[in-house]
Write a structure and sequence with these properties.
alpha/beta; 302 residues; Rossmann fold
């Protein structure tokens, strides 16, 4: 007797279970799972990539390489950076599709081979699926292939943060400069106090609402990332680490600085600055020049 075919929702739930159990690198059981993944995950992946790639605004790269690209969700964002040639390395043949300027390599990026040299190298939700040793071995080959910039995007979970922190430390040890979300190479101020992550709002389709069993027309995709380059970049900025606390007479911003996690408070009587900071959100930057009133971060202050 044949087993009943799984519904779309059952395929998605099976994929989600493997990701929760850190078994994502085992791949997909069949083409239906692959299709379910593409439909379910692409909107959130594209939204997170858009936010991350906004930190590269104004820069151009001729060539790009993505390791474990899935269905190629990065394509429109790479094109926004005027990338002419893209190499996608992905072991799942079913993700492959025709895209202008794209060369697909259908193989596992864990295999022992040299990655093609590229101006920009990208990991999008793929590095954290590996063991610690595999992550470092893969990063070593990735930085050998990086001519300019490397971008790593991971889920905004403790596991994703730990993978990202490991990668950040490795990049710094190999003389890369951190360009985002922080602008220094000192220890992450969130280490031991939680985890550094950000959020982007994603519209839910009818299918998504059915799977989630909810009624909201949106969800918040949590993510963490690092952008590093072989070239230094002098940005006198700090990054807002959490949702600003906006009150009638003051605003408090939790900031990432080279001297650790600090809190900045702006009173309403400083009208222009107060008005400007009210428009700032989680993950955005503020100029370090305005922070003459920064105090050391203390939990009881928040």
């Amino acid at each position: 007797m044949e087993k009943p075919k799984k519904t779309f929702k059952e395929h998605v739930l099976a994929i989600q279970k493997r990701y929760r159990n850190l078994e994502a690198k085992e791949g997909f059981e069949n083409t239906k799972e692959l299709e379910a993944y593409t439909l379910f995950r692409t909107p959130a992946t594209e939204a997170a990539l858009k936010k991350v790639f906004s930190h590269l605004e104004g820069k151009t790269f001729k060539t790009a390489l993505e390791l474990g690209c899935g269905p190629g969700s990065s394509y429109p964002h790479l094109k926004d950076l005027f990338v002419e040639k893209i190499v996608y390395i992905e072991k799942e043949e079913g993700f492959r599709r025709e895209m202008e300027g794209v060369t697909w390599m259908t193989r596992n990026f864990l295999d022992d081979f040299l990655y093609p040299p590229s101006d920009l190298v990208l990991f999008s939700y793929s590095l954290g699926e590996l063991s610690n040793k595999e992550q470092i071995d893969t990063l070593f080959r990735a930085i050998e292939a990086t001519k300019d910039t490397i971008v790593i995007l991971e889920p905004g979970t403790m596991h994703g943060y730990e993978s990202l922190l490991r990668a950040r430390d490795f990049l710094i040890e190999n003389n890369f400069f951190i360009h985002a979300p922080c602008f220094h190479t000192k220890e992450c101020p969130k280490k031991g106090k939680g985890w550094c992550h950000f959020s982007v709002r994603v519209e839910r389709s009818r299918v998504h609402r059915q799977i989630k069993g909810g009624t909201l027309g949106y969800e918040d995709e949590k993510y963490c990332f690092v952008i590093a380059s072989k070239k230094p970049e002098n940005k006198n900025c700090f990054t807002i680490l959490d949702t600003p606390k906006v009150e009638k007479h003051r605003i408090r911003l939790n900031l990432c600085t080279p001297d650790g996690e600090k809190i900045f408070e702006c009173k309403a009587h400083n009208r222009e600055l107060f008005k400007s900071l009210k428009k700032k959100g989680w993950g955005e930057m503020v100029s370090s020049g305005i922070l003459s009133g920064v105090d050391d971060y203390k939990n009881d202050q928040v």
